Amino acid sequence: MTTVTGERPSGRDTLADVSASGASLRRFLHGLPGVDQVGAEQRAAMLASRSIKTDSKRQAIDLAIGMIDLTTLEGMDTAGKVRSLCAKARHPDPTDPTCPQVAAICVYPDMVPLVVAELKGTGIHTASVASGFPSGRTSLDIKLEDTRNAVAAGADEVDMVIDRGAFLSGDYLLVYEQIAAIKAAAGKAHLKVILETGELVTYDNVRRASWLAMLAGGDFIKTSTGKVAPAATLPVTMVMLEAVRDFRVATGRQVGVKPAGGIRTSKDAIRYLVTVNETAGPDWLDPDWFRFGASSLLNDLLLQRQRMATGHYSGPDYVTVD
After folding, report:
1. Can you give the pLDDT at residue 52?
2. Of 51, 191, 245, 280, which residue has the fewest beta carbons closer than 10 angstroms?
3. Secondary structure class of 319 (helix, strand, coil)
4. Can you give the pTM of this predicted structure?
């Protein structure tokens, strides 16, 4: 089932015709099929209503734990808090060695060396926000230096945020060039491009921003910084999943998706996993291609996991307070 409507206009640039020029990008992005808002929201609601059997639920909970980017991005972050978060990343449930590790720890650049040291040998990724996070309103030189510093400190993933003002003004070339430049500065590190979908207003803009980020070289597209409401929503994430699915068909390159902000319960996480499977397909049901930017989600997943193992809920002191 598709949630798009309308025919592609005649004379629209094909993907092969798109070049790094403002006119070419505009023609391509505005030639993408429009999103049927009612259809998208009905489709997301239908997927959210799917029931999951017990064995599948256990697998989904473990999969979701392994997809979490455990994050702290506050001005009052301390070395002690970051060390505690790294310990939780390594052993989310210290009483159960079968509990999966999380996918990554995400911090500000100055905390990257500490995270790298704490996670050495674990296989857990070190992610850092950069490029003037969360507003993105700084010069390109500063964005590039911020990115280089994070990577030099050991980050193997970089989360950048697009200039929403430029995008909403229709200056797609500026956004494209900044993403491409930051991708180059990141080198071998994976680049997650934050669209801040809560400020993009329409599903059509979400689709255009998703394609723009992928065309510019983004390895992941991410909904939100977590600093703007609304953050991640199921319909928005579904539109982004449709974009990465269609992009792979068109180019052969697979791009990941990361909803971030507002995903707090196991039930929420499972709804997202169902949507991933039904929209993009099972190839995306892997931490290399789908992540949750939702630190508070981990506690609920751990409580649900323990309930399924023992038959009862633990008290609130079973999990740490992040």
Report:
1. 84
2. 51
3. coil
4. 0.92
Residue pair 231/262 in contact by the 8 Å Cβ criterion: yes
Note whether 157 and 189 are within 8 A (CB). Answer: yes
Q: What are the chain's domains? A: 20-310 (3.20.20.70)
Average pLDDT of the segment spanning 109-113: 97
The active-site residue out of 222, 246, 268, 300 is 222
Catalytic residue among 69, 159, 204, 219: 159
Q: How far is CA 257 from the centre of its chain?
A: 5
Q: Is 222 a catalytic residue?
A: yes
Q: Which tokens is 207 given?
A: 């689709």
Place of tokens 């070395």: 79
Residue (of 214, 211, 217, 223) closest to 186 by Cα position:
217
Task: Say if residues 100 and 92 touch (Cβ distance below 8 Å).
Answer: yes
Across the beta sheet with 157-161, the strand order is: 69-71, 104-107, 125-129, 157-161, 190-194, 220-222, 256-258
AA identity, residue 169: S
Q: Which residue type occupies 185? A: A
